[in-house]
Amino acid sequence: MSEQDPTKIPVAAAGEPQRTDPRTFLVRAVSMLGQLALPIGIALFSIFRKGEVADKALLFLPFVLILVGINFGIAYLRWLRLTYTTGKEDIRVESGIVSRAARSVPYERIQDVSLEQKFLPRLFGLVEVKFETGAGGAEDLKLAYLTEAQGEALRLLIRERREEEAAEVAARPAADAAQVPADEPAEVLFSMDAGRLTTFGLFEFSLAVFAVIGGAFQYAESIAGIELWDPDLWLGLAESQQGWIAGLGPMLQVISAIAGIIALVVVGSVTGLVRTYLRDWGFVLEKTVRGFRRRRGLFTRTDVVMPVHRVQAIELGTGLVRYRFGWHELKFTSLAQDAGQSSHVVAPFAKMEEIAPIIRAAGFAPPSEDLDWHLASRKYRLDSALLEGGVFALLAIPVAIFAPLPFVLVPLGLAAFFAGANLYAWQFHRHALSATQIFARRGLLSPRTQIASRVKLHSVEIEQGPIARRRGYATLHLGLAGGKFSISGLPLEQAVELRAAILDSIAAKDFSRLGG
């Protein structure tokens, strides 16, 4: 996105309705054409298949032109009838051609303002401005489209007016509160070049392409005139190929099977690479005076700014394979959402020495083995192992009744395996409490660590099920804005002590002065 100085871009005066950029209707019209492409394509295919091209094409072409004209007309009217107003206390958006809709969002409810550029708007230098309210989904307000400079200026304006309403800003001189330089120095905390992206993509193995192919097959029946879900079709195909496969000989059959597996791996790897490049191309995380700024995306470019004091917690995760190579992922939990998720990915593929400075910049301390780590209750460990293995042990009963006796060993073996794995993984299920933070870590093959600030937690709840009440352990649920944080299997007395310590931290903090 452009790096123009947003303070030099004119912003609508308070109370004065403004329209989005005029090129918005072109972007919307072209986007809407995609919805017409499939029915038009099917109609053309039918014309060519019946061989009546000359006569029907002349009648079909004006129909297509009328549809395109109506499409552009509707897009223009939608742009003309959409206005936004930046008032003193809220931003108001009005839209609708026949039925009018108006929505106002107070600045104090706006958790964050992000800029997004999908491929087509990006060609025109336009951005979509998203106002995160913490409600998520359709409840968030969107404004499409503005120029990059106008979007950045509006984001800065919203943030300044929101900050002016905060108590800790009101305690300072107004001139100081408004001093947010556009050319603020930015410290790059993390970035990924093409080499890192390629490595990351290889770990993001995915077979999602087959789901896309399956979706495309839904249209094959109407276009190709075949019944894809007809079992006789596939049985006939298998029978026709059976003789050919048998004629290859044992050696070629093995080679063909290996080639099929290699092809599957290649497809999965290429799919993972493509998804990673599309999502994380140009990934950069910076620390500015306004907070953390993250930009990423090849076709759809997102620009998100997260104030430091709005980072409620952090989550450190990894994967089954990447963990063996020392790669981890860092997320920030905040009130705003990131692509439908409650956490913002700030370092998707990094080593711990790269992640530790980011954690410190957010005001947290990285997890350390020097902490006073505590394991879950031994009774919880035993109960979990029995429940985990008991499910497979129960399966042995119907297997013993309806299958030959040796098959009983399968569910019994699985029961023993999962029970043993649960017992072994118990030593990795632990938690710790420091003077300012609470830590929770669990997972054997792909460990996950959550860290929350004690003063930013909203509530603490102790939960006990019927088994836990009898056995004397509990689950501690921590009220975390924008996310979830629970520690299970705590001895009851320890859960009570943790609750008391966290509640004391919350009560001792003056939240009207919580900022950063």
Automatic annotation (TrEMBL):
Transmembrane residues, as ranges? Answer: 25-48, 60-79, 200-220, 254-278, 385-403, 409-426
Query: Which protein, by its recorded name, is this?
Result: PH domain-containing protein
Name the keywords, alphabetized: Membrane, Transmembrane, Transmembrane helix
Describe the location of the YdbS-like PH domain by residue ranges.
79-155, 290-346, 426-501
